[in-house]
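New to this. Please check both lines:
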Amino acid sequence: MDDRFEKRADALEDKYFHQKDVEAIEQLRAKMKVSAEAKAAGISSMECPRCDGVLKENTFEEVSINSCVKCGGIWLDSGELETLLKPESKGWFHRLWAAVTE
C-alpha cells in the first residue's frame, strides 16, 4: 500500500515541476518576442547597467555597439572589443595609436 502512495506522490511532483517548466518557457518566449519587436523597431529591450535608460544599437566599423540614450554609456557584447582592436582590421584604436605615436 505504501508503494501506491509513493508512486502517486512522485507523479504529483513530476506534474508540479512540469508545470513550472512550462511557465518558465512561456516567460522566456514572451521576453524573446519583446526583444525581437524592439530590435525590429531599432531599439534594444535591454536597460543600461549604469542607469535606467534604454540601450540603442548602433553600428561602428561593422560592430554592433549598444549606447544608452540617457547617460551616453557605451556597452559592448562579448568579442566586440576584440574585433575593434584587431590589428589586421586597422580599427579606430590602431589609427589612434598610430597618430599618438608619430
